[in-house]
Amino acid sequence: MRARKRGRTPIEEAVSMIVEETKGPIETELRALADSAGYVLAGDVRAVLDQPPFTRSPLDGYALRSSDLNGAGREHPVCLPVSQYIPAGIISSGRLPEGTAARIMTGAPLPEGADCVIPQEDTDLGEHRAAFYAFIEPGRNVCFKGEDIKAGESLVFAGTRLDFTHIGILAGQGIRRVEVYKKPRVAVMATGDELLPLDKEPVPGKIYDSNGVMICARLRELGAEADLHPIKGDAPGELAAATERLLQEYPLVITTGGVSVGDRDYMPAVAEMVRARILFHGIAAKPGSPALAAVRNGRILLALSGNPFACIATLELLARPVLAKLSGESVWRQRQVRARLAGSFGKPSPARRFIRARLTGGLVSVPEKGHSSGSLKTLAGCNCLIDIPGGSGALAEGDEVKVWLF
Ligand SMILES: Nc1nc2c(c(=O)[nH]1)N[C@H]1C(S)=C(S)[C@@H](COP(=O)(O)OP(=O)(O)OC[C@H]3O[C@@H](n4cnc5c(N)ncnc54)[C@H](O)[C@@H]3O)O[C@H]1N2
Ligand code: MOO
């Protein structure tokens, strides 16, 4: 158990503090494979079948013995009787008689005795007797049983977040259901007297709660079951009661707003009122520097700053690793890459700073303006944050930067 960190905590340290306090998932469920994208596999899955399950033709053509094609060419075709017709889905009736060919379709099982397939383009397409205009070596144009997957081999490991690739592989095995971890439930609560829910008409001096809705959308994209709770005003008793309730029900509670130094920023006091142990209050980066994390009975309270860009940036930086652990993802690493700046960024960064950007083909471009942490418009189309080290001057076109992908 780590002691509360005083002062501003570097992001990496903050992340490892919260992740260390986060409990992995226990509850699993059996889900239909077709409906399991985005869930994390709870146990290793091994192949139950060879794939392909039989040796088959990858072409429409004729299956035969290569030795029967000796000397075949455009000028000297070899002619053979066609002894079988094998469409896809049908096992040939018997061994291919010596000196004959089987008409075969793509995906059909090779008849026993055949060792290659000649594409129909190199034949006269004869029905009872066919002429072959090329020589084909043994093994050519044959997909061998088990060449892709061998029964018994490990296919997908526990802790993998399933996507369409895994689902395709497992469907090829006839696996109908998979054991996955239940999605982690996350409570989201926006705080602030100025906030309006979307179902209210505009009111002078008030703004709509974009943070709550945006964070829930992102959490769902990241595989969580996110519940948006009613907005709470800046009243410590009410905030504490709501936070207390949420911490009883959810492994992760994310609030936005009221976490800085203002008279009415009550979240630090609320964390204490609900007897949560504060891990850190303040991160050594902008935006979102007032962020606070606390833990109570293994449940995490993450109080993010109210400025919309600050809250979404810190959700990526701080909450994503927590979510990965809650989900049971065994290998999770923030996807960080290096890239060259496509334009410039004029502001110096005395402290570490994260800015919105778009990475395409190794080049990362930054909106010309609209970087304030209260502004969201230019976030549209961005797919990453640029991580600018503290003490940096302005950035110039071509500079190499570190990028954290969304
Ligand atoms: N004297 C100082 N003032 C401030 C400091 C400081 O160090 N000294 N830090 C600034 C920084 S940095 C930030 S970030 C903000 C963060 O303050 P809070 O996290 O307490 O957030 P609020 O004050 O509640 O809100 C900030 C801003 O965002 C708007 N907001 C809040 N919630 C939402 C929402 N759900 N949807 C949309 N917009 C929201 C709110 O109206 C404010 O405009 O503090 C600085 N001040
Ligand atoms: O965290 Mo504030 O958004 O740094 O300006």
From TrEMBL:
It catalyses: adenylyl-molybdopterin + molybdate = Mo-molybdopterin + AMP + H(+). Its cofactor is Mg(2+). GO terms for cellular component: cytosol. Its EC number is 2.10.1.1. Pathway: Cofactor biosynthesis; molybdopterin biosynthesis. InterPro entries: MoaB/Mog-like_dom_sf (IPR036425), MoaB/Mog_dom (IPR001453), MoeA-like (IPR038987), MoeA_C_domain_IV (IPR005111), MoeA_C_domain_IV_sf (IPR036688), MoeA_linker/N (IPR005110), MoeA_linker/N_sf (IPR036135). Residues 187-325 form the MoaB/Mog domain. GO terms for biological process: Mo-molybdopterin cofactor biosynthetic process. The keyword Membrane does not apply. Catalyzes the insertion of molybdate into adenylated molybdopterin with the concomitant release of AMP. PANTHER family: GEPHYRIN, MOLYBDOPTERIN BIOSYNTHESIS PROTEIN. This is Molybdopterin molybdenumtransferase. The lineage of its organism: Bacteria, Bacillati, Bacillota, Clostridia, Lachnospirales.
